[in-house]
Amino acid sequence: MTDSSKQKAPGRQSEGFQKDSSKRGNFSAKSTSVEAQIERLLAMLRLRPHTSHELAKAGIYHSPARILQLRKRGYVIQTHRVHLTDAWGYGHSRCGLYELLSEPGA
User: How far apart are CA 81 and CA 90, in angstroms?
Assistant: First the structure.
């Protein structure tokens, strides 16, 4: 009898498994991968400034981290602090409102 508990999962490599994050644009609209979130975030910010509350509803989780990643890539994004009330009547003080000012190479 063989011990099946030590077999590798199909499609997984052993140590050194690295996800290729260089591929872009092949994500579903509901993908939660970091690159998919960044693509959605950029598309939204190119239209107008958005709050962290709006970004979360669009599936962009922990928006400050996504904004930081874009800033490290050369995007200039300004953060404003605003107070908003959600659909259930709860107030959110110091909610982030993110505004894209310029893109790298522009």
Answer: 17
